[in-house]
């Protein structure tokens, strides 16, 4: 599995190197977009000292953890939500006749390295945040755990987004609301949103487990919304549950696959 | 080698007919289809556009699951054992390539070697053999996007045969090829079938392919098997016609379109 993925990823990297100008421009473009993200946080904190009750290093911590998780998931599995394009072009049929899992081929298709830049960027923000926070080891163990869980949760959302396109071939944008929307949502403390939304992203689409709940533990905070204390340890549970749903959805999708005309 | 028993495949088409009203229609792309292809046979699969050829091919290769009936290819149920089946069969779609567009042909082959887990020695031997037979040598290092259609097609055939499959499924392999390339392709396929005993199932609209290659012909129309037999049997259905093309045209016309059904498949 991992070997096949690595091999195909390397292939796509070499293929995209065939168009160096395009590669350079895309890299610059993605750097600029992400710089704007960070600029937004800086602008907010030049006007106030807290955001939703959280100080700058704490917000940077939330941004950094969500950012790393999303960027890793996006690099490894982000292409899955472009399934409908591949179905329409007939490219998905070709993946189905090869002796490798269709999900894996779909995930690695057009693998691009410039997404690695995003990971680095988010990691730098996370590093700065940790420098300003002084988290004791008794709580810091949660940081790698929450990042891994975040990757699994975002990857599952990508997979579910892809799976729905077996049915809704013409609506890939619906899926983007959950993938990229989810990424933006988790960049800020959830206290800046309404409590109904927080409940929804805790219990329906478990985005709160990407960073919000475990971050409350790492930062040693009480839940400003008064949700039960044990939820902050529940990220692995949420990740496994969502991954299971994603796997079942993908399988059901493949079974219902209709291919195209010719 | 290929065994199809009472297979059907339906598609549900939903169409908006009013603001809230939606119309559901069930289209039978293939119905009650049964046939077998024995090991070593070279069988042609004919039918007008939209008759169910591609749907059948997709069910045989595991891309689509049948709605009813039973299929066995090389001893496996395609829809359930798709990846295992992929190692036993080769598939070529004339209309789209399985090669990596931006990579040299050679690199695509190397990648296929890994995906199909072909060992290095067997791969080298096989590639040398195919390179010689299909005269690929001069453009093994050319990126696929720069190849002519004929060259790309030869590349695709090679890609489908590197793992030495027992069954080769060809969906319009000679489409768009010039006379010389077509003749070369046919010569190669005949040799492959005769010398290696590879079972071949071929769909085509080119009657030359049928006359020059196939032991047996199956003709599908409106999702049902309309004719099955040798080339001579096919001719005998319309003895007054001189060319095989006219014979087939007659057969197509006989099972004339049940209007909506045919166009509905093009969605």
The biggest beta sheet of chain A reads: 2 strands, antiparallel
The residue fraction in helices of chain A comes out at 55-70%
Report Rg of chain B.
19 Å
User: Strand portion of chain A, in percent?
Assistant: under 5%
Can you count the helices of chain A? Answer: 13
> What is the helix content of chain B?
25-40%
- The CATH architecture name of the largest domain in chain B reads 3-Layer(aba) Sandwich
Report the total helices of chain B: 10
Shape of chain B: globular
Query: What would you call the shape of chain A?
Result: globular
The domain tally of chain A reads 1
Spell the H/E element sequence of chain B. Answer: EEEHEHEHHHEHEHEEHHH
Structural class of chain A: mainly alpha
Encode the helix/strand succession of chain A as letters. HHEEHHHHHHHHHHH
Q: Which chains share the greatest interface?
A: A-B, 27 and 32 residues
How many beta-strand elements of chain B? 9
Separation of the first and last Cα atoms of chain B: 32 Å
Give the termini separation of chain A.
Answer: 31 Å
Mean pLDDT of chain B: 87
Oligomer: heterodimer
How would you portray this structure in words?
The complex is a heterodimer of chains A (about 260) and B (about 270). With about 260 residues, chain A is mainly alpha-helical. Chain A has one domain. In chain A, strands 1-2 form a two-stranded antiparallel ribbon. Chain A is globular and about 55 Å long. The mean pLDDT of chain A is about 90. Chain B has about 270 residues and is an alpha/beta fold. Chain B contains ten helices and nine strands. In chain B, strands 5-6-7-3-8-9 form a six-stranded mixed beta sheet, with helices on both faces. A three-stranded antiparallel beta sheet of chain B has the order 2-1-4. In chain B, strand 6, helix 6 and strand 7 form a beta-alpha-beta unit. Classes of the chains: A mainly alpha (about 260), B alpha/beta (about 270). At the A-B interface, helix 1 and helix 5 of A face helix 2 and helix 3 of B. Chain A: Pfam families: ABC2_membrane_6. Chain A: Keywords: Membrane, Transmembrane, Transmembrane helix. Chain A: InterPro entries: ABC-2_transporter-like (IPR010390).
């Amino acid at each position: 599995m991992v070997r096949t993925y690595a091999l195909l990823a390397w292939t796509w990297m070499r293929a995209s190197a065939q168009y160096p100008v395009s590669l350079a421009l895309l890299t610059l473009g993605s750097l600029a977009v992400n710089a704007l993200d960070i600029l937004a946080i800086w602008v907010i904190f030049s006007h106030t000292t807290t955001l939703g009750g959280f100080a700058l290093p704490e917000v940077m911590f939330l941004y950094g953890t969500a950012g790393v998780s999303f960027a890793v998931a996006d690099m490894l599995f982000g292409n899955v939500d472009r399934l409908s394009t591949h179905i329409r072009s007939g490219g998905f049929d070709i993946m189905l006749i090869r002796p490798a899992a269709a999900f894996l081929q779909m995930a690695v298709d057009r693998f691009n390295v410039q997404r690695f830049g995003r990971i680095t960027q988010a990691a730098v923000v996370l590093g700065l945040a940790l420098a300003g926070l002084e988290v004791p080891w008794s709580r810091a163990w949660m940081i790698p755990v929450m990042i891994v869980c975040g990757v699994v949760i975002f990857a599952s959302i990508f997979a579910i987004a892809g799976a729905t396109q077996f049915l809704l071939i013409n609506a890939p944008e619906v899926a983007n609301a959950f993938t990229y929307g989810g990424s933006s949502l988790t960049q800020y403390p959830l206290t800046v949103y309404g409590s109904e939304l927080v409940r929804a992203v805790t219990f329906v689409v478990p985005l709160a487990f990407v960073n919000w709940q475990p971050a409350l533990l790492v930062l040693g905070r009480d839940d400003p919304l008064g949700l039960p204390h044990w939820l902050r340890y529940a990220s692995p549970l949420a990740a496994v549950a969502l991954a299971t749903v994603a796997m079942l959805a993908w399988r059901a999708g493949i079974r219902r696959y209709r291919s195209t005309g010719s | 080698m290929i065994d199809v028993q009472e297979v059907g495949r339906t598609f549900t088409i939903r169409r908006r007919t009013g603001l809230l009203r939606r119309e559901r229609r069930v289209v039978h792309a293939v119905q009650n289809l049964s046939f077998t292809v024995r090991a070593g046979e070279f069988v042609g699969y004919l039918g007008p556009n939209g008759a169910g050829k591609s749907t059948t091919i997709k069910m045989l290769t595991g891309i689509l699951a049948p709605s009813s009936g039973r299929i066995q290819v090389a001893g496996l149920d395609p829809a359930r054992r798709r990846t295992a089946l992929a190692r036993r069969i080769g598939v070529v779609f004339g209309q789209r390539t399985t090669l990596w567009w931006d990579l040299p042909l050679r690199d695509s082959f190397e990648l296929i070697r890994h995906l199909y887990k072909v060992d290095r020695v067997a791969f080298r031997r096989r590639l040398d053999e195919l390179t010689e037979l299909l005269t690929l040598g001069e453009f093994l290092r050319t990126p696929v996007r720069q190849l002519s259609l004929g060259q790309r097609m030869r590349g695709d055939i090679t890609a489908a045969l590197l793992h030495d499959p027992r069954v080769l499924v060809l969906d319009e392999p000679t489409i768009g090829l010039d006379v010389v390339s077509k003749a070369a392709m046919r010569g190669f396929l005949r040799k492959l079938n005769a010398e290696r005993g590879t079972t071949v199932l071929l769909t085509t609209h080119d009657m030359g392919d049928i006359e020059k290659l196939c032991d047996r012909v199956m003709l599908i129309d409106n999702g049902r098997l309309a004719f099955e037999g040798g080339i001579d049997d096919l001719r005998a259905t319309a003895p007054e016609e001189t060319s095989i093309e006219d014979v087939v045209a007659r057969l197509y016309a006989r099972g004339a379109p049940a209007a909506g059904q045919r166009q509905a498949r093009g969605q």
